[in-house]
Structure formats: structure tokens, C-alpha cells
Amino acid sequence: MITIKNNQEIEKMREANRIVGKLLHKIGSIVKPGVSTLDLDNFAEQLIRSEGGRPAFKGYSVPGLPPFPAALCTSVNSGVVHGIPSKTEILQEGDIIGIDVGVYKDGFYGDAARTYRVGQISSEAEQLLQVTMEALDRGMAQARVGARVGDISYAIGSYVLDQGYFVADNLTGHGIGRRLHEDPVIPNWGAKGKGPRLGKGMTLAIEPMVNIGTNRVIEKGWEFFVEDGSLSAHYENTVLITESDPEILTAYKN
Ligand code: MG
């Protein structure tokens, strides 16, 4: 069931997602060579708690895996998603790192991700980031009253393929609200005009995960990697469906 949020609920969604947007903005200034992914996680948890939120990924459980141990998912280079921060994983000049964060506050969740440049990156990596950002923009542009989930999926998947890249298998966006993952599932590939119809007051996490070499991924516990070891990027926003353009709840506001 896709939940429709009323005005009071939307205000709470705005607040949880505001913290997500602020964190993803602030953390950009500390991503640099020599920093560990655990340093980033400590920064994140502190900021989230100082804003009255709780890190939503920490303790998150799925069958067959231990609870997720951190506030952030940090996925470096060929990491696709769900990387676990570690004090022994030190960022190197030229790396790219996907940082995904969820925040819970006052009954509601926020969720978004960005991919960051560590120092100077290759033109190959830069191109991947640009394509993944553009894929998210194109997906969000379809998130309108009366459209269908498949319109978002098609906009993302067809653009990525046209550019010669691949969307990662089996990883999707999702509805979000009182739960971190709600209906509908939002694939990054699919057919126009198919799937559930979008209505005012729905909140969706749209999140293309784009690989250079192949759509295939391998799972190691929580962590997903590109099968051929090529680079992967991830951008995500939580958006509110309105009568006009979607409201990007995880945009950074001063
Ligand atoms: Mg998500």
C-alpha cells in the first residue's frame, strides 16, 4: 500500500529530510585523502543526534544478516551500496565514495545519497558522476501527479543505457514515510506507463545506482560491489509529489 501523507505528516517528513540534506552538504567538506570511512560515520552520527534525529540505518535488520552497524553506508569505487564504514578503510586521492544516510525523527524517515570526489578524480569517474546525477534529475522530473512509477524507471534506465552505462541489478528506490522502506518499489529500469500511479502527498526515495562496466553485482554480507570491479556511483533524493514539480525534501537549505 502506498501511503499518502497529510500536511502534518509532510512537515515531519520535511524535518527528517532536512537533516539528511544538511548532513550530505556538510560531510562534503571532510571527504579528503587520509580520512577513514569510520571518521565520516562518527561525524554523521554526531550531526544527526545534534539535530534531534536518530541514524536510521544503525541497527537496521534484514533476515540473514547482523543488524547494520553504522549511521552511514560508505561505498568506495566499485562499492555500489551498503558499504560498512571502517577505521582501516582510508580514502585515497582519486577515489569516489557513495555516502547514503537515513535519519529518523519524530515518527518519520528521510533518506538520500551523494557520490563524492576524493581530491582530483579521473575524467572517467567524473563522467560517471555526471551521468548518475542526470539520471536522478530525469527520474525526479517524472515524479508528478498522474504519472506512473514506470515513467520514473524508464527515464532513469533508458538514459543510463543510452550513455553506455549500466544500472545495478536488483537495487531499487522505494516509498518512504513512517517506515524507511515503503511501497512502491521504484526500479531503475522499466517501461513507461506501467506500475502504480503517483498521487499528491506520496513521498518517494528515487536512487539510481550506475556502474561503468556491467549491471552485475556481487553481495558480500551487507555490501554490494560491481562484479567486474569497475566504478559505481549513487545519487538519491527523497521527494514529495505535489500538484506541480516534486519538492526535493533532501535538498540542502541554509
Ligand atoms: Mg533509499
Features:
single chain, 254 residues, alpha+beta, Creatine Amidinohydrolase, five-stranded antiparallel sheet, four-stranded antiparallel sheet, 15 strands, binds magnesium ion
Question: Can you offer a commentary on this structure?
Answer:
By secondary structure, this protein is an alpha+beta fold. The protein has a single domain (7-248), classed as Creatinase/methionine aminopeptidase superfamily (Creatine Amidinohydrolase), CATH 3.90.230.10. Helix content is 26%, strand content 25%. The protein contains four helices and 15 strands. It has helices at residues 7-26, 37-50, 123-141, 149-162; strands at residues 54-55, 72-76, 79-81, 96-105, 108-117, 166-167, 173-175, 182-186, 203-206, 209-211, 217-220, 223-226, 232-234, 237-240, 247-248. The strands form four sheets. A five-stranded antiparallel β-sheet has the order 8-7-9-14-15. Strands 1, 2, 4 and 5 form a four-stranded antiparallel β-sheet that branches. Strand 14 and strand 15 form a beta hairpin. Helix 3 packs antiparallel against helix 4 (149-162). It is globular. 49% of the residues are buried. The mean pLDDT is 98. It binds magnesium ion. Magnesium ion is lined by residues 111, 174, 205, 207, 236.
